[in-house]
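At this stage, I wrote out one protein's amino acid sequence and its backbone structure tokens, and that material follows here:
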Amino acid sequence: MLTERTTRARRWEMFGLAAILLLAAALRLGWPRISEFKRDEANLARAALDVARGRALPLLGLSSSVNIPNSPLSVYLFAPPFALSDDPTAAVLWVGALNVLAVALVWALARRFYGARAAWVAGLLYAASPWAAIFSRKIWAQDALPPFIVAAVLLGLIGELEDRHWGRRLHLVTLAVAVQIHYAAFTLGPLSAWWHWRAWRRGQKRDVLWGFGLAALSFVPFGVGLARAGLLAPHALGERLAASETHPARVFSFTALDHARLLIAGQEIHALAGPQQFRAYLASVPNVWPLFWVLPVGTLLSAAWLAWRLKRRAAPHPAANGALLAWLALPVLAFSYEWVELTPHYLIPLMPAAYLLCGVGAARLWEVARGRRMWRAAGLVALLGLIGMQVGVFGALLRFVDTHSTPGGFGTPLHYLLDVRRAVLERDPSSVLVVSAGEVAPYDEAPAVWGVLLEDVPLVRFVDGRRTALLPAIPSLELLDSSVALWACDATCLAAGERWPRRDGEPPYVLRPAPSADVYTWQAVNVPARLENGAQLLGWWAETDALVLAWQLGGPVSEDYQAFVHVLDADGRKLAQADRPAWPGRYWRAEDVLLLRFPLTLPPQSDALFVGMYTVTPSAEGLRYHNAALVDARGAYLAQGVTVPLAP
């Protein structure tokens, strides 16, 4: 039977665990709509929403920064919250909950192999870590990584130290899942290989084969997707990596070590305020950052002490000590040679190991200070003070990025976007035009973001307002991003709409009814002007530094066209020309009027315009160009474009 003292100790343990998890939940689940929702988050949300609604089951995930596709597993992982709601807040809470689970697993690992004190310190440090909280608060594949990393190590230790078959069998599949969530998890591969080699030598071959079999099953969808994309051919992935837009230095450096230091310490979170505003954020909080060096220094000291114990094979768990040291070191070693353009989130896997090491070291110091109550009290006060400072600067950061424009840093928080979304949906429009920068998802941010947020609107189209305007034939609601220099909507136009504010210093969104064609005047075209794709040139006008063509569309087309204009003199010689994308063909609707602005000035001797549209398609011989021919009323060919005399 348990003694009263043991029962009381366990109650205090559970109380401490509850406090740790409450702190972790507050920092990861609190204020979930102060979350970024930019292009990457929106594209992952779109893919997960398609899975949740049964529209698609992708075999490849989103493209990675190194030009290699990710596994679809991260998309599947985010499908459950989108099955409940198309509001991205549910997915933000989902990833936050996964990271609260990671904190619980860190506590469980420390408690199982190092005792209650180590678990309390490790769990508390991980729960309060500013960077761990930051990497827990948005729809990003790598933000879902920590629970699988910690679970993989915990299961591996259970298999290695406790000789549990289920630990060995589940370890590798859990690590395989982590690798598919984000490639940075591969850095734990050598540790896993060591455990499996030892198990094989001990005759536990069935467990090893089970682990590899389950891991292989988890890779089946990804493998099929890679095969269909031709990426399993020899050198295919290497060629994709070589063609990546990132250009690493390909040298040995201390960048990985520095990134590890700032993640462990919780320093430089002011980077989220952006290059223009980080000083304003720093001025809003006390200069406590030097104190945060305690954690990386403590991690190194604890690692050195465990390495010494490992060398002496000291009890209780030398294999666990080696695992913690490898867990901390392997990610740094893997990225010390800059074979990819390294960013801090690649070092997410080592953060739990650092706090576990701090917990083990702190527990040892507590034992050394036995009988010295003042020392213990001072250590406890220092620990809680450090935790309080980290929580304070993180909370101040959330308040700052929620109320201040942060160019180059934290994007517009989700709740501002959801306010606009609610306003649009309350009007129950059948058609919405989003006028911003960019027209095509997943490459342009506005189409990616608003395509997900306005999922339930029957028709949503995107216009690059810097050079294009649409005058729809059907009543439509126009959502204008006033942070963009909109060519067809000046300050007076924006002031006439309903404004939806964002952060201080950030231009608002504006809602208004889309204008009709009668608000514009142009010089009409009095020659045959209908192309075979259904577009008909209505007219043109010249601005100081631009030429505008007005086209009436004939309905959706399957191809995307380029538009061109050539300026000719009286002898037909070309004086100037300009080309630009027309507008994505899937957006075209019958009777809509499309205004295309070309950065072109008419020379004094201009006599005529030659305008039209063409497609560009790749072929074995190179790019192939095909003009949309000018046709008559019966569809018969007339010319390769429309010739418009400039004289009345």
Remarks:
- The chain has a mean pLDDT of 92.
